[in-house]
Amino acid sequence: xxxxxxxxxxxxxxxxxxxxxxxxxxxxxxxxxxxxxxxxxxxxxxxxxxxxxxxxxxxxxxxxxxxxxxxxxxxxxxxxxxxxxxxxxxxxxxxxxxxxxxxxxxxxxxxxxxxx
Amino acid sequence: xxxxxxxxxxxxxxxxxxxxxxxxxxxxxxxxxxxxxxxxxxxxxxxxxxxxxxxxxxxxxxxxxxxxxxxxxxxxxxxxxxxxxxxxxxxxxxxxxxxxxxxxxxxxxxxxx
Lengths: 116, 113
What we know:
The structure holds 2 protein chains of 2 kinds.
Chain A: E1 5-7, E2 10-13, E3 19-24, E4 31-37, E5 44-50, E6 53-56, E7 65-68, E8 75-79, E9 88-95, E10 106-107, E11 111-115
Chain B: E1 3-6, E2 11-14, E3 19-21, E4 23-26, E5 32-38, E6 45-50, E7 56-59, E8 62-65, E9 75-77, E10 86-93, E11 101-103, E12 107-112
Parallel strand pairs in B: 2-12
Antiparallel strand pairs in B: 1-4, 3-9, 5-6, 5-10, 7-8, 8-9, 10-11, 10-12
């Protein structure tokens, strides 16, 4: 079956612009995660959704970052007033929703964001 | 706060050599522990996991045992293949509140034929 997909695969923007990154989870997965990964580092947790609600958004770095999942499937990560330091690979993962401690997270290929 | 420390790479081995990648953690409560792998040009995928102390996770010839007394979850494989060349990430999720997965920095493995 189809895995997690993310669009676009690459996004180049200018400092100060607004960007949206999209994640399509595996069908039927109720849990969805966003991560940010800088070169040479492990993924850094941003936010976790269970259904439509953000169960844990403690990883969002500041109020320029916001994520939604209005119908409990597709999610959009929104970044306002982008800064050069936001340049990274943004990863999305989904899981069946039995519980993060035991679930297998399935990762998408990522969106590489470059802020000039 | 919770954290994961894994050995720095790159690790370069010859085919059929024994592999150990060290991982230690700091966490409150009883976290679940994971190893993820990223093959060249592919996305992250779960390799194995252990959810309680003394559990052993295993997959594709890789093993890791959850050692609470040493707060470790070292990854081992008895005989590596060229196809095992990848970046390996150790990770944890605490069970004491929140759903944040904490990843280590990753260890790159090169296996030479």
